[in-house]
C-alpha cells in the first residue's frame, strides 16, 4: 500500500517540477542571457618596454638616451542572471633620460572604474558607474624642469554616473548616463592658485594674495562611455574606451572627450608589440598656443594627443 501511495505522490509532483523548470527556462530566454558568461571572470595584461641609444664619436650627431615604460591593465567581472559587476584598473608610467638632462616623464596614468548593473531585459541594464583618474608623479613644462604643471591628485577626476548600460556582446558595452556628477581636484595649491585645469584661480590685489584658488570644481551633466575588450585568434588584443561628458550648465555644446586605445600583438610567449594612444579634449583645460616660430601667443583649449609604441615583455593572466 505504501508503494502505491509513493508512486501516486511522485506522479503528482512531476508536473509541478516540470512547470518550475519550464518557468526558469522561459525567464532565462526572456532575459537573453548566455549562461556560459555567468560567474566570475578576471584577467589582465602587463607590458614592459626598454630602449637604449649609445653613441661614440658619431659623426651624424645625436645623444645617448635611455627610456622605459610599463602598461598594466586588470579586470574583475561578475555576472548572474540579473546582476553584473565590472571593475577595471589601468596604470601606465614611462620615463626617459637623454644625455646629461634629468629624467623626464613620458607617460603617467592611474585609472580605476567600477560599474554595477541590474538587468532589465534584452541585454539592457540599469547601472551606476564610479570612475577615478589621476597620475602618480609631477609633470614639468619641459625643457624648463623647474615649472611644475601637474602633480599627484593635480589633476584628479572623480565621476559618478547613473543610467542605462547596453551590452550587445560580451566584449562591448555602451553606457549612457543622463545624471552624472564630475569633480576635478587640484590639490597642489600653487597650481590651484594659477587656475590650472579649470578650477577658480586665486585673487591678488597689488601682487598680494587675498584669496586662495579653489582646489576643486564640480560639474553636472550627461555622460557616454563605450568600451571594447576583445581578443582575436589568441594573437591580437584590443582595448578601447571612449568617454564623452557635457556640462549642462556651462557650454554644453563643448563636449569633453577622452579616448584611449591599446592594441597588442603577440610575437612570442613573452614578447609583444603594442600601440597605445590617448586623445583628450577638455574645454576648461588651457594649454599654450604657439605660432610657427614657436613663440607663445596665449592659452586656450586644444586637442591633446599621445602615442606610445613599443616592443618588449608582455604577460597575460
How is this structure best summarized?
The protein has helices spanning 2-31, 189-193, and strands at residues 39-53, 65-79, 83-98, 104-121, 124-134, 139-141, 144-150, 156-169, 172-185, 203-205, 208-211, 216-232, 236-247, 256-266, 271-281, 287-290, 296-300, 304-316. By secondary structure, the chain is mainly beta.
Explain this structure:
By secondary structure, this protein is mainly beta. The chain folds into two domains: 1-31; 36-316, Beta Barrel (Outer membrane phospholipase (ompla), Chain C). Helices cover 11% and strands 61% of the residues. The protein contains two helices and 18 strands. The chain has helices spanning 2-31, 189-193; strands spanning 39-53, 65-79, 83-98, 104-121, 124-134, 139-141, 144-150, 156-169, 172-185, 203-205, 208-211, 216-232, 236-247, 256-266, 271-281, 287-290, 296-300, 304-316. The strands form four sheets. Strands 1-2-3-4-5-8-9-12-13-14-15-18 form a twelve-stranded antiparallel beta barrel. Strands 6-7 form a two-stranded antiparallel ribbon. The longest helix has 30 residues, at 2-31. It is flat, with a radius of gyration of 26 Å. Mean pLDDT is 85; it is low at 1-22.
Multimerization status: single chain
Uncertain residue ranges: 1-22
What is the rounded Rg?
Answer: 26 Å
Could you spell the SSE succession in H and E letters?
HEEEEEEEEEHEEEEEEEEE
Predict the CATH topology of the largest domain: Outer membrane phospholipase (ompla), Chain C
Counting helices, strands and paired strands, the structural category is: mainly beta
Strand content: over 45%
* Envelope shape: flat
Mean pLDDT equals 85
Largest sheet properties: 12 strands, antiparallel, barrel
Helix fraction by DSSP (H/I, runs of at least 4): 10-25%
Beginning-to-end CA distance, first to last residue: 62 Å
Amino acid at each position: 500500500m505504501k508503494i502505491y501511495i509513493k508512486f501516486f505522490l511522485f506522479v503528482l509532483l512531476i508536473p509541478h517540477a516540470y512547470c518550475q523548470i519550464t518557468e526558469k527556462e522561459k525567464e532565462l530566454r526572456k532575459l537573453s542571457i548566455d549562461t556560459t558568461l555567468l560567474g566570475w571572470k578576471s584577467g589582465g595584461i602587463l607590458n614592459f618596454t626598454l630602449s637604449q641609444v649609445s653613441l661614440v664619436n658619431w659623426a651624424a650627431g645625436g645623444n645617448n638616451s635611455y627610456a622605459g615604460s610599463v602598461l598594466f591593465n586588470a579586470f574583475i567581472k561578475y555576472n548572474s542572471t540579473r546582476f553584473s559587476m565590472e571593475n577595471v584598473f589601468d596604470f601606465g608610467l614611462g620615463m626617459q633620460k637623454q644625455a646629461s638632462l634629468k629624467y623626464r616623464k613620458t607617460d603617467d596614468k592611474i585609472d580605476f572604474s567600477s560599474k554595477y548593473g541590474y538587468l532589465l531585459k534584452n541585454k539592457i541594464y540599469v547601472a551606476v558607474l564610479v570612475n577615478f583618474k589621476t597620475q602618480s608623479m609631477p609633470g614639468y613644462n619641459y625643457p624648463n624642469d623647474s615649472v611644475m604643471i601637474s602633480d599627484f591628485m593635480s589633476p584628479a577626476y572623480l565621476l559618478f554616473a547613473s543610467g542605462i548600460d547596453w551590452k550587445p556582446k560580451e566584449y562591448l558595452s555602451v553606457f549612457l548616463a543622463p545624471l552624472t556628477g564630475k569633480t576635478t581636484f587640484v590639490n597642489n595649491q600653487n597650481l590651484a592658485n594659477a587656475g590650472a585645469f579649470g578650477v577658480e584661480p586665486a585673487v591678488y590685489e597689488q601682487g598680494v594674495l587675498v584669496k586662495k584658488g579653489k582646489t576643486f570644481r564640480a560639474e553636472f551633466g550627461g555622460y557616454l562611455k563605450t568600451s571594447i575588450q576583445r581578443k582575436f585568434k589568441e594573437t591580437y588584443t584590443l582595448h578601447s574606451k571612449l568617454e564623452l561628458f557635457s556640462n549642462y550648465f556651462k557650454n554644453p555644446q563643448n563636449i569633453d572627450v577622452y579616448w584611449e586605445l591599446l592594441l597588442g600583438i603577440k610575437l612570442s610567449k613573452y614578447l609583444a608589440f603594442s600601440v597605445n594612444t590617448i586623445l583628450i579634449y577638455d574645454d576648461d583645460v588651457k594649454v599654450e598656443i604657439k605660432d610657427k616660430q614657436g613663440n607663445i601667443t596665449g592659452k586656450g583649449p586644444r586637442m591633446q594627443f599621445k602615442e606610445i609604441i613599443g616592443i618588449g615583455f608582455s604577460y597575460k593572466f
